[in-house]
Specification:
Layout lengths: L1 E5 L4 H11 L2 E4 L1 E4 L5 E4 L8 E5 L5 H16 L4 E6 L18 H11 L3 E5 L8 E5 L2 E6 L2 H11 L3 E5 L5 H11 L2 E4 L1 E4 L5 E4 L9 E9 L3 H12 L4 E9 L6 H4 L4 E5 L7 E3 L2 H10 L1
């Protein structure tokens, strides 16, 4: 018998996924002590059961909670653990740029791997395709939901052009544009610091078009805002932004004041999580 184990960061998504497979959801009990240490308890005996743990990691606390959930389940001697991390924190630190840097993605995944039988995530930042990958000895299943974003915009708008905020993200724009059946392009971006970017002017065919800026992660939103301003100068009819992972480290009000619409999936639960990955993820988690 299989149970879905819901961490505190993915309660709605876990419930929705479980509903497609008609399995029971068990919500983990969590609390914080006065010194900010985290307490985790699995409120049911699960010895010999198969478990699917669903916990996104938008914060360090949610990542620690995931580690504690997995270790508690191992202590319970469950039969198997499939770990689904919709948003994998530290995935942007996947390689060493300067001597002595920690490869944080490797560290995180090795810990999860030690406590899991199989690991799934969604549009991992350092993976370009859907499927199973070996990353520093860890087998990781990557689920691609960019087509779901494409379907969302296709239902709502016509005369669409999909724009990537930089050349590195053009692969995402291409996937969504393939679903929509529209053109795609990219902007030229130069990163000045971890929070500051410069978008170089580039002439594109966006006049009187509904433009969708698409990326895997929107964090501070600075890149998206700069791109939107350039596109509006080129007479785009509407400028919208879509992403898989809505981190929104500076909130969303500044984005909504510049863009006509902001759309994210529910890998992280936000006020603009308008695209659900639940049905597609359920098929992957329970069929492999």
């Amino acid at each position: 018998m299989t149970f879905v184990i819901s961490g505190s960061a993915s309660k709605s998504l876990a419930t929705e996924i479980a509903s497609f497979e008609k399995v029971q959801v068990i919500e983990v009990e969590t609390k914080k002590f006065p010194d900010n240490e985290i307490y985790v308890r699995i409120p049911r005996k699960l010895s010999g059961k198969d478990c699917v743990v669903i916990q996104s990691t938008p914060s360090n606390d949610s990542l620690l909670e995931l580690f504690f959930i997995l270790d508690a389940l191992r202590d319970e001697k469950v039969s198997s653990i499939v770990t689904f991390v919709p948003y994998l924190r530290y995935s942007r630190q996947d390689k060493q740029f300067l001597a002595g840097e920690a490869i944080s993605a490797k560290t995180v995944l090795r810990i999860i791997d030690e406590l899991s039988d199989k690991i799934f995530t969604v549009n991992c930042h350092f993976l370009d395709e859907e499927g199973m990958f070996n990353y520093h000895g860890v087998e990781l299943w990557n689920i691609d939901v960019f087509p779901l974003l494409g379907e969302y915009f296709k239902r709502k708008f016509t005369d669409i052009v999909v724009i990537a905020p930089d050349k590195g993200s053009v692969k995402y724009a291409k996937k969504a544009a393939g679903v929509i059946g529209c053109e795609f392009d990219y902007l030229e971006k130069k990163r000045i610091s971890c929070e500051e970017v410069e978008i170089k002017p580039k002439k594109m065919n966006v006049s009187d078009k509904n433009v969708v800026i698409l990326d895997d992660i929107i964090s501070s939103g600075g890149t998206i805002i700069n791109a939107a301003e350039i596109l509006k100068q080129q007479r785009a009819k509407k400028v919208m932004a879509g992403c898989v992972h809505g981190v929104f480290s500076k909130g969303i009000d500044h984005l909504l004041s510049t863009l006509d619409e902001v759309v994210a999936t529910n890998t992280i639960e936000t006020p603009v999580s308008k695209v659900s990955i639940a049905e597609y993820a359920a098929k992957k988690l329970f069929k492999l």
